[in-house]
Structure formats: structure tokens, C-alpha cells
Design goal:
Elements: E1 2-6, H1 11-22, E2 31-35, H2 39-56, E3 61-65, H3 68-72, E4 77-80, H4 86-99, H5 111-135, E5 140-143, H6 148-158, E6 162-165, H7 169-181, E7 189-195, E8 198-206, E9 209-210, H8 212-219, H9 222-225, H10 229-238, H11 246-249, H12 261-266, H13 273-292, H14 307-316, E10 320-327, E11 340-348, E12 351-354, H15 362-384, H16 387-395, H17 398-403, H18 406-420, H19 451-465
Parallel strand pairs: 1-2, 1-4, 2-3, 4-5, 5-6
Antiparallel strand pairs: 7-8, 8-9, 10-11, 11-12
Length: 467
């Protein structure tokens, strides 16, 4: 069996997935192929994964390559964890909107940040799917890269590859909920459904008893409430608890950030959280690079990730239930058929099959639908080369709409397009000017920012907030 990890320079993630896979006795002699475009990060990642194999007493064949096609040839499973553009592109996604008065916490799922991350991922991801159809057409693609829903639209709308999007928010949040009510996660029965990062726990039970009354009661304890203020506020209004973190969900709606620093500070909304994490990752990489060259043993613990469970179930036939992201096609009856849904997913030798959840409460659909429509506008913009769909995707983002005027939204998008550039001109984006429409641009010309100017902008913002 050959398992390929594309973007293996995400060294902590590739290390954890390697440990999960090799923890199964059946896979201790598998071929693990690591691929990245950054030689330095690739070498460190492969070295750490060799340490993981030694720690588990496994004898896999380990390959490392800069050539994607070489990596994909003959693969059985492909795991995508690529982030196109790295930290410099992330700075673009934060600093240009900041000029217009728009601030984010994470900016990797929805809104202008998620939209442009998806657009710059589109050429690479659609190209990789074409390579897979040629070199390993029967392989299953496990996508871990954000923005999950938009990237899954790219995979399914440009290829016939069997693929699933994977996240750890469902199982991770269950652990949090269990801690709030003093229960063990394994004792809780639940059903969760929606879209990635905006799925909701429709049912929380223990021995047939509804646990939601206890969760609402637990929220009244200030110590519990303070651990997850945004999500508890959303539960208070919507009646259900959402999967992804408070820092993520704070930017998925208009209820917190647009009302100013004093207001969102009350709810501990961490503006620029992702940029601070990126700064920390730089130092962590240098530490792990040094560690990879030593003879020190590495600690290996199974992670929450579903990837190895899926591979094991498909190879051995041992059935499993995970939460996957795939086209809805009726799993949630009041979401569009081509939306990317996240619902309970059955896995065995036959592959991955959605279960049928049925109709979601209307208030939960209302929370998701602006983002579902953004996902559709994104994929049409990328496939048809339509700049106007980029504007419209940003227009209907709740946070952006609550903060900027229409003219500001169009100008911001034009500036972001200029900053990231088209792939045909050495940038990242698909050509967004293929189809002309009557929808006007801002009429302005923007020079791409330099990495130094973006870093200066972030440093000034960092100093101003004192965080």
C-alpha cells in the first residue's frame, strides 16, 4: 500500500498522521511518500516521520520527493495538507482588508480570507486531481486543507476523484462539551450535521437522556462560560452548540467584530489570532529541525484525526463512522444538493457513504446559507474566470457586509486580486478576467504590496493592540 502526503512540509501534521497510520499493525510495512515544494521542510518532515516509525517499531518504505507526479504514481491514498502562498499570502489576506477597516481572527474558512485562500489553491488542487486521474485514478483523496468546503468544491467540480474532506472540530468539540457537563466523551451519543466549521450538535444524549439542559445549565457558571463565550452566545440564541471554536465563529457572523473593540473584547475575540500562531510556527520549525538531526527518541501519541481510521476501514473492511465533508446530495434535505455538507459518514471496503440526516432546524440553515452561497460563487468564479463572482462572494459574507460598503468591497477584492496575481503571470490565482460581464470593477489600479510592507503593517497593528 502506498500513502502519499502532499504538503508534507506541514511537519507536525505529517508527523501525527504518520504515527496514526503506523500504529495499525497492518500498515507497519506500507510505503509512505512525502511530497513538498520546500526542500528544507520536506527533509525535516521525512526525518521526523522516520523517528516516528522507529518509535513504533515499524519498517515502512519512506520516500521524499519534490516531484508531485512522481509521488502520486501508483498511490492508493493521497492526503492533501497544502497551504498555497505560505505566510506572505496570509499577510495579504489580513493586511489589505485591514486597510478598509475589516479585521479577522483566523481568515481561513470564509470571508475574503477564506475566499482568496481557496482561489489561490484552485490551480494547484485541480492540477493535482488531473494528475491523480492519470496516475492513480482509483486512489482516495483525503483533504485536510482549508478552506475545507471551497477546496472540496474544487475537487468534485473538476474531477472524478473519490475524495473526502476531514477536520477534527467535531471530535475535538465533543471532548470540550463532555468536560463542561462532567461526562466522558465515550459515554455520549450524538449526531452532528451542517457544513464544515458550522456544523451543530443536533443531539447530545446519555442513556436516552437529553444532555442539552445540563449544557445550558453549565453555561451559567462563569468559569465555564468564559472558556467559550462566542459559542455559548450562539447556543443561547440558536439552541444548539456549533463545532468550530469561538475564535473561528466570531468571524462567521455579524454579531461580534463589527461592533467595535470594546464589544468584541467582552467576548474575548482574538483579532489576528492566526497571524500570531504563524509567528509561533516559525520558531517551532527551527526547534524541530534541530531535533530531527539528533538521536533523541520522539514521543508518539494517536491524534484525533480521522485519516488513519478511514484508510484502515477501507483496506481491512473493519467498518467505522467518521464525520466527512462531501457533496450533500440529499443527506441534509434543506441544504442544496451540491453544497459540501459535513455529516456522519460510514466507511468500509466500499468507500465512504453519507448517512441521511434529514431536515435541519431553519435557524441553523440560516446561519450556514450565506457561506454555502459563497462556496458556490467561488467555484463558479474559478471555473468560469469571473471577477464579478468574487465581488459577490465577498458581498454576501456576513462579516464583510456588516463592515464595508459595496464600493469598498469591490475595491478590496480588486486590490487582493492584484496582490495575489494570476498564475499565468507568476502569481497564484486562476484567471478571473476570462468572462467579461456588465458588473463594473472598482476602476482602480493597484500595485502588489511587498512582503516588507505587509510585515510592517502587521507589526504596527500588533503593537497597537498590545497583543
Amino acid at each position: 500500500m502506498k500513502i502519499v502526503m502532499v504538503g508534507a512540509g506541514s511537519i507536525v501534521f505529517s508527523k501525527n498522521l504518520t504515527g496514526d497510520i503506523l500504529s495499525y499493525p497492518e500498515f507497519k510495512n506500507a510505503t509512505l511518500c512525502y511530497m513538498d515544494v520546500d526542500r528544507d521542510r520536506l527533509e525535516v518532515g521525512a526525518a521526523l516521520c522516520s523517528k516516528v516509525a522507529d518509535a513504533l517499531g515499524a519498517k515502512p518504505t519512506i520516500q521524499a520527493t519534490l516531484d508531485r507526479r512522481e509521488a502520486l504514481r501508483g498511490a492508493d491514498f493521497v492526503i492533501n495538507m497544502v497551504q498555497i502562498g505560505g505566510f506572505d499570502s496570509t499577510l495579504v489576506d489580513f493586511e489589505i482588508p485591514r486597510k478598509y477597516g475589516l479585521n479577522f481572527t483566523i481568515a481561513d474558512t470564509t470571508g475574503p480570507g477564506g475566499l482568496f485562500r481557496a482561489l489561490r489553491t484552485f490551480p494547484m488542487l485541480s492540477g493535482m486531481c488531473r494528475d491523480m486521474m492519470e496516475l492513480c485514478p482509483k486512489a482516495t483523496l483525503l483533504n485536510y486543507s482549508n478552506p475545507m468546503s471551497m477546496n472540496m468544491q474544487t475537487i468534485y467540480r473538476t474531477s472524478d476523484i473519490h475524495a473526502v474532506g476531514l477536520c477534527h472540530s467535531v471530535q475535538g468539540t465533543l471532548d470540550e462539551l463532555a468536560s463542561y457537563i462532567g461526562e466522558k466523551p465515550r459515554d455520549i451519543g450524538f449526531i452532528c450535521a451542517g457544513i464544515n466549521h458550522m456544523a451543530f450538535y443536533l443531539r447530545l444524549e446519555k442513556e436516552g437522556q437529553n444532555l442539552y439542559p445540563r449544557l445550558f445549565e453549565a453555561m451559567k457558571d462563569p468559569k465555564t462560560y468564559e472558556r467559550n463565550k462566542v459559542r455559548f452566545e450562539l447556543m443561547k440564541r440558536l439552541g444548539y452548540f456549533v463545532t468550530e471554536s469561538s475564535e473561528h465563529n466570531a468571524e462567521y457572523n455579524p454579531y461580534f467584530i463589527p461592533h467595535g473593540g470594546d464589544f468584541y473584547g467582552k467576548y474575548d475575540v482574538p483579532i489576528d489570532e492566526y497571524l500570531r500562531r504563524c509567528d509561533g510556527i516559525v520558531h517551532e520549525f527551527e526547534r524541530l529541525k534541530t531535533f530531527s538531526k539528533t538521536n533523541e527518541n520522539i514521543d508518539v501519541q494517536r491524534s484525533h484525526e480521522y485519516g488513519s481510521t478511514i484508510i484502515h476501514a477501507m483496506v481491512t473492511g473493519t467498518p467505522a463512522v467518521v464525520y466527512g465533508n462531501m457533496p450533500n446530495r440529499g443527506a441534509i434535505s434543506n441544504l442544496p444538493a451540491n453544497a459540501i455538507a459535513e455529516v456522519p459518514t460510514l466507511v468500509d471496503r466500499a468507500g465512504l457513504q453519507f448517512t441521511t440526516v434529514g431536515e435541519l432546524p431553519p435557524q441553523l440553515i440560516a446561519y450556514m446559507m450565506p457561506h454555502v452561497q459563497q462556496h458556490e460563487l467561488f467555484i463558479r468564479a474559478a471555473l468560469e474566470g469571473r471577477r464579478d463572482h468574487v465581488y459577490q462572494a465577498a458581498m454576501f459574507d456576513p462579516l464583510t457586509a456588516a463592515t464595508l460598503t459595496l464600493d469598498q468591497i469591490v475595491a478590496m477584492c480588486d486590490e487582493l486580486i492584484a496582490a495575489h496575481g494570476f498564475e499565468s503571470n507568476g502569481g497564484f490565482l486562476p484567471n478571473l478576467d476570462t468572462k467579461k460581464t456588465l458588473v463594473p470593477t472598482s476602476g482602480r489600479t493597484f500595485d502588489p504590496p511587498t512582503a516588507a510592507s505587509l510585515r510592517q503593517s502587521w507589526d504596527r497593528a500588533h503593537q497597537a493592540t498590545g497583543r
